[in-house]
Amino acid sequence: MSITKTDVDHVAKLARLDLSDTEKELFTEQLNAILKYAEQLNGLNTEGVVPTSHAMPMVNVMREDVTAPSLPIEKVLLNAPDHEDGQFKVPAVLE
């Protein structure tokens, strides 16, 4: 499989990109080089290799959901540019 200049034109149109002829030629060459490199994988012997979703075995990588005390409101508001009644004060968005 190879990428043609027409393919690059089509994708550029879908992405609403205005590419020059030089860029189209460059991207066509680069995409074909990527495909040629990826084709090398077809030559690998994968007999007996179990398909996986990750290269390394994965276990639950999520931490335990443990409650912890929050910061006191006075300390939280120290860095606030403006606050009122224990809450952050921001400019009005709606009138």
From TrEMBL:
Coiled coil: none annotated. Its EC number is 6.3.5.-. The keyword Protein biosynthesis applies. It catalyses: L-glutamyl-tRNA(Gln) + L-glutamine + ATP + H2O = L-glutaminyl-tRNA(Gln) + L-glutamate + ADP + phosphate + H(+); L-aspartyl-tRNA(Asn) + L-glutamine + ATP + H2O = L-asparaginyl-tRNA(Asn) + L-glutamate + ADP + phosphate + 2 H(+). GO terms for molecular function: asparaginyl-tRNA synthase (glutamine-hydrolyzing) activity; ATP binding; glutaminyl-tRNA synthase (glutamine-hydrolyzing) activity; transferase activity. Allows the formation of correctly charged Asn-tRNA(Asn) or Gln-tRNA(Gln) through the transamidation of misacylated Asp-tRNA(Asn) or Glu-tRNA(Gln) in organisms which lack either or both of asparaginyl-tRNA or glutaminyl-tRNA synthetases. The reaction takes place in the presence of glutamine and ATP through an activated phospho-Asp-tRNA(Asn) or phospho-Glu-tRNA(Gln). It comes from the Bacteria. One of its GO terms (biological process) is glutaminyl-tRNAGln biosynthesis via transamidation. The gene is gatC. Belongs to the GatC family. The keyword Cytoplasm does not apply. Keywords: ATP-binding, Ligase, Nucleotide-binding, Protein biosynthesis, Transferase. This is Aspartyl/glutamyl-tRNA(Asn/Gln) amidotransferase subunit C. Heterotrimer of A, B and C subunits.
